[in-house]
Every structure is written in C-alpha cells, then in structure tokens.
Write a structure and sequence with these properties.
68% of the residues lie in helices and 0% in strands. Helix 11 packs parallel to helix 13 and helix 12 packs antiparallel against helix 13. The chain is built from 22 helices and no strands. 49% of the residues are buried. InterPro entries: Cro/C1-type_HTH, TPR-like_helical_dom_sf, TPR_rpt.
C-alpha cells in the first residue's frame, strides 16, 4: 500500500539540495552514462511522474540516482523504490540504521531533539515497520555502564519521573508548542547521563525507560504541532529506548502513539503492523490502560481502512481491557488520560469514519455520561477535536442546529491552546459546513472563524 504523506521523499531531497528537476535529471543522466554507457532523458515531467507514483524509474536509473544522492547503489535492489531514498537523509540514517543495542540507542537518542522544522514525509517506509517491531521484540537490554563517570542512583530517576509528569499535564493545558522544547531538553539530559554516568543495571533500565517516555512525549508534541517527520523520528527512538530498557509496556505505549501518526497519515496497514507487534507482547504489558489504548488505536486503524467488523471487535477489546483495570492510581502515571470516556470518544471517531453517525453519537454521549467520563477540563485540545467530530456526525444526519452548537463549543475549548491537530480539525469542519452556507447561522460561524 502506498503511504499518503505530505511530500514524496525525492521532492524533499531536491529542495534540500536546491536542485530543480532538470538539474537533478542532468546529474542522473551523466552518472547513468558513466555507469551504463548511455544518457537518459532530462525532461522535468519525469520527476513529477516519479513523485506522483504513476511511474517507477528503471532500476539502472535508480542506481544512477543513488550515486548522485550518495547512497550505495546496492541498496536500490535491496530496499526497492522509493524506500532506499530514505537513506539519503543523513539525519534519519542514524535512527533507522543504528544497531538495536544500548550503544545504538544512545546514538539514536543523540540525533533527535532539534527544532521542530521538519514537516516533510513519514521517515520509515511502510514495509519496514513490521521488521522494526521484530527488532524491538528481540533487542538486548541495558547493562551496567562501565564508564568512570559519576555514580547515580534511583533518586535521579525519581526526579526525572516528577519532571516528565509535570510536562505531560502542561501539554494538556497549553498545547504542544511550549512543551516540545521542554521535553527535548529532558531527553538531552537523560541521554547525557546514559552516556557519561555510571549506574547499576536496575538504574540503567529505568533511565532507558525515561528516555523512551521523554522521546514519546516529544514525538507527540511534534505531531500535534504538525511536524510529521520530527514526530516519527522521536517515536522510533522511543521504541529503541524501550527495547534497551527491557520495558515492553513503555515500548507498547510508544508503538501505539506511532501507530496513531501512521494511520492519520494514510497508512492504516502500517499502523496495524505496529499495534499487532505490540499486542504480541500482551503477557509482558503490565498496564491495563496501555493494553486498552492499543486496542483503541487498533480500532481507529481498522476504521481508517474501512474494516467495520474488525474495528468494532477492537472497540470491544479496548472496553473489556479497561474494565479489568484498577484505579488510575494503581496504573502508570503516564496513562492518567486513558478513561472509559476516552475509549468511547475513540469508538465514536471510528464509527464516524465508517459512515455510522448514529452509532458515533451514541458513543460521544457515553463518553460524557459514563461514571468514568472524558475530562473536558483537563483535555482542552482533545475536547475541541471530539466536539468537531460530534458536529460532523450531526451534519451527516442533517441536524444543522446541533452541528453549530458543537462547533461553537469547539471554539471555546481551542482558546489559548497551541495545537495544529485542533486547528486542522476545525478547518475540516468548516469545509463541511460550507455546503450549508446558505443558512444565516452557518454564514455567521464561517465569518467568525475565517
């Protein structure tokens, strides 16, 4: 399946090198002549056909292209088009190719955390996801460091735990813009300690778990800000760090967040590869809320793929897993946001994607009326997104008044929250409302949000 992404990797590579299509094609033609004894055409339309997916370059042209981009031509046949192009991004190569060892994890962690300036495309090819999950499942865990650095213990771990918990709640209230920088600062500090300090095996595992959580949080913030490639790089390093810690629960959580990014960007099959890989370790997942979240993400991926029966089975599995959970105080602090109300919101979103607005509204109502409801006070950003989807369900049923009521509530909850996800959801709602712009109240709302 082709992944729907912001841009084709070749288009981004041309931009990075400041090459026009013709400039690039001339370089490829020269390299092809040197390798094969014949030149190739240099009409700029070739590049647009390659990046649109309508034509795949001949293998000898791809090998000449790899030469131009500084990639070993042997990778062309090994990885296929367009997957080998990802190797031309030096900053992604470390994350994708570092060994799945503690040292490789530190190397990958050190390569993330810069400014969120990459919207771009998905970093990992769809076909590589299952293989990465298999590497996660078999990677060696951390061992006590042999450096002569300062000895640190569990007290440092506790301090980082406290700081990350505060950052999670800060993100809920003010959005991702401010929280990203703070999360990456924590990640850099944790990574530095992993590299330079000495610690016991127990403390080392805890530090890798903290690195996984910090990278996951940074990934979520980047994703919420609309920076897809940066987000995926963080989710990949979070999975790597969880592997080094031997903490399958942290890894499953990171895989669930990564899956969210994949199905939102048009790759539900890749998302399911990630989720199913995490669920293969169910016996080692100690948090019932993480397990419920995995099934909820599975439901969304199936709904994005149009697989109705599988989506609703996953909804039932999510609710069943949550019913087996104890109080939030007995679960992981990072899972405070997973409530029965949250799961009903996901179920509603899945039903809406599957074209069942009545069923969606029943779940939206259950999210608020359940004895363990969705917390609209603590989840301003999420509330805005789910209210927009509620409005879409009302629109699908022709109830314009109810749709507008929810739409105005969206604006109340978006006030003061920095979130590209919320903004894009509002844009989609406005697009749907435009078909009813002959109604005065709709005109007023569109004018208010212009």
């Amino acid at each position: 399946m082709n992944v729907t992404v912001d841009r084709h990797p070749l288009a981004t590579l041309l931009d990075r090198n400041r090459w026009t299509a013709v400039m690039f094609l001339k370089r490829v033609s020269d390299r092809h002549r040197a390798r094969e004894g014949s030149a190739t055409a240099t009409r700029k339309e070739k590049v647009s056909r390659w990046t649109s997916g309508s034509i795949t370059p001949e293998i000898t042209v791809q090998e000449a292209m790899a030469d131009v981009l500084g990639v070993d031509p042997q990778e062309v046949r090994r990885r296929g088009w367009p997957d080998w192009l990802f190797l031309a991004f030096d900053d992604d190569h470390t994350i994708l190719e570092s060994p799945w060892t503690p040292a490789g994890t530190v190397q990958a962690l050190e390569s993330v955390g810069g400014p969120v300036d990459r919207r771009g495309f998905l970093v990992a090819s769809s076909g590589a996801l299952a293989a990465m999950v298999a590497q996660w499942a078999t990677a060696p865990h951390s061992a006590a460091t042999s450096t002569s650095g300062r000895r640190i213990g569990q007290q440092v771990v506790t301090l980082f735990d406290t700081r990350l918990d505060a950052l999670r709640h800060l993100d809920d209230q003010v959005g991702s813009g401010q929280a990203y920088d703070a999360a990456t600062a924590e990640l850099r500090l944790i990574t530095r300690i992993l590299r330079e300090a000495s610690y016991s095996d127990n403390t080392g595992r805890s530090l890798y778990t903290l690195a996984a959580e910090a990278s996951q949080l940074a990934g979520w913030c980047a994703y919420d800000s609309g920076h897809t490639a940066t987000a995926e790089r963080h989710f990949i390093t979070a999975v790597r760090a969880s592997a080094s810690s031997g903490n399958d629960t942290a890894g499953a959580s990171a895989l669930a967040f990564w899956a969210n990014l994949r199905y939102t960007n048009g790759d539900p099959r890749g998302a399911l590869d990630l989720i199913n890989g995490a669920l293969a370790s169910t016996r080692n997942i100690t948090s019932p809320r993480v397990l419920a979240m995995l099934h909820a993400r599975q439901a969304r991926a199936h709904s994005k793929a149009g697989e109705t029966a599988a989506a609703y089975r996953a909804v039932d599995a999510a609710l069943d897993a949550y019913d087996r959970a104890g109080p939030a105080s007995e679960d992981l602090p990072a899972m405070y946001w997973v409530t029965a109300g949250e799961l009903h919101q996901v179920a509603a979103s899945s039903a809406l994607s599957l074209g069942e607005p009545h069923r969606a509204l029943r779940h939206f109502d259950a999210a608020m009326s359940h004895h363990d409801p969705y917390d609209t006070e603590k989840e301003a950003r999420g509330t805005a997104i789910y209210l927009a989807r509620r409005a879409e369900a009302h629109l699908a049923l022709g109830d314009i008044d109810a749709a507008l009521e929810s739409a105005h509530q969206v604006l109340e909850h978006m006030s003061g929250v920095d979130s590209a996800l919320s903004s894009s959801t509002l844009t989609e709602l406005r697009d749907q409302l435009r078909t009813h712009r002959h109604i005065r109240a709709v005109q007023d709302f569109l004018g208010l949000t212009a």
